[in-house]
Amino acid sequence: MNAMRAYPGEFGSVVLKGIHNVERLITACDGGDLPVPARKALNLQADQPVDTQKKTEEMIAEIRADARANDAAQSLQTIPGIGPVTTSALVFALPISPTSNQVATFLLG
Questions:
Q1: Whole-number Å distance between alpha carbons of 39 and 52
Q2: What string of pLDDT tens digits covers the 109 residues of the chain?
Q3: H/E segment holding residue 105
Q4: What pTM was estimated for this model as a whole?
């Protein structure tokens, strides 16, 4: 992120620190008076967090779909504050069979 802020800073565009300002940084670079090579380098770096966000959202969607299809995960999600990501991790880590009373035993201690 600091490198991304440095490129436009060299040419007079200043953007505040922080990951939440990435969109402002990308907008400043696209609309700024940056030379073409600097803009290409910045776009290359700017694509990385955007791609990471998209891939993360895709993985979370897959985890949620798997949790919906798994009976043990469904049972574990009845615990307040336990969502699909946590239940998927628990089902993977612990051999819980939804057909037995293992889920109830796990829930009740």
A1: 20
A2: 666 666 666 767 677 777 777 777 777 666 667 777 777 877 787 788 778 889 999 999 999 999 999 888 888 888 888 899 998 888 888 776 655 556 556 555 5
A3: helix 102-108
A4: 0.58
Tokens linked to 69: 């299809």
C-alpha separations of 91 from 57, 60, 83, 102, 107 in Å? 21, 16, 12, 11, 13
∠ CA 15-58-84, rounded to 5°: 110
For the chain, how many residues are written?
109
The closest alpha carbon to 5, from 58, 41, 53, belongs to 41
